[in-house]
What we know:
This protein has 180 residues and is α+β, with helices and mostly antiparallel strands. It folds into 2 domains: 1-122, 3-Layer(aba) Sandwich (Rossmann fold), CATH 3.40.50.300; 124-179, no CATH class. Helices cover 47% and strands 13% of the residues. The protein has 8 helices and 4 strands, in the order αααβαβαββααα. The chain has helices at 14-24, 29-42, 58-70, 88-105, 116-122, 140-144, 150-155, 159-168, and strands at residues 76-80, 108-112, 125-130, 133-139. Helix 4 (88-105) links the parallel strand 1 and strand 2 (108-112). Helix 2 packs across helix 3 (58-70). The radius of gyration is 19 Å and the shape is elongated.
Amino acid sequence: MIFQHFNLLHARTVADNVAVPLEIAGVPRAAREARVRELLELVDLSEKAAAFPSQLSGGQKQRVGIARALAARPEVLLCDEATSALDPETTASVLALLADINQRLNLTIVLITHQLEVVKTICDHAALLEQGEIVESGKLADLLVTPWSRLRQSLLHDPQAEQEFLTRHGVQGRPLCGVA
C-alpha cells in the first residue's frame, strides 16, 4: 500500500525502508538486498539508497513508498491518496511512474483519490463513492460518454479537455458537453 504521508521510518535509510516488508517476511539477506536494488532502480532512486528520509523531497519519499509497496510482489497495488501531498509537477511524475509500473509489471493499481485530474490522467476504470457506497462504476471512457454520468459531470468541465481525454482513450466523436 502507498500512503498519502509516506510513512517512512526516519531512522532507516531508503534501502532499509524498502527492505522492511522483506525483513518481516523472513526473506534472506542476499535476496532482500537484490530485491531492494531492483526496486530502487525501478523507481529511479538507486543513488539515494544510503540517504535518510529527511534528505529527500516529497516526490522521492513517495517513490520510496512505491518501492516498499512493491517489495513483496503484490497482486494489486493500493494507493491511498498517494499524490495529494505533492505539487502538480511531482504528481505528474508519480502518476507517470505508476502508469509505467502498471504496464511493465502488469500490475493492477487501485487509486483512492479526491483529485479528479488524477482520475482523468491515469485511470482506465473508475468508481464513484458517496458515503462509502459505490454509486457509479465502469470503464472510464464509457462513463464519460454517458451524458447523465455523475462522474462525467464531475470530471469534464470544458469541451477541449473532454475531447483531449476522449481522444487519449480511443473514443471518437464530438465533445459531449458544451459551453453556453
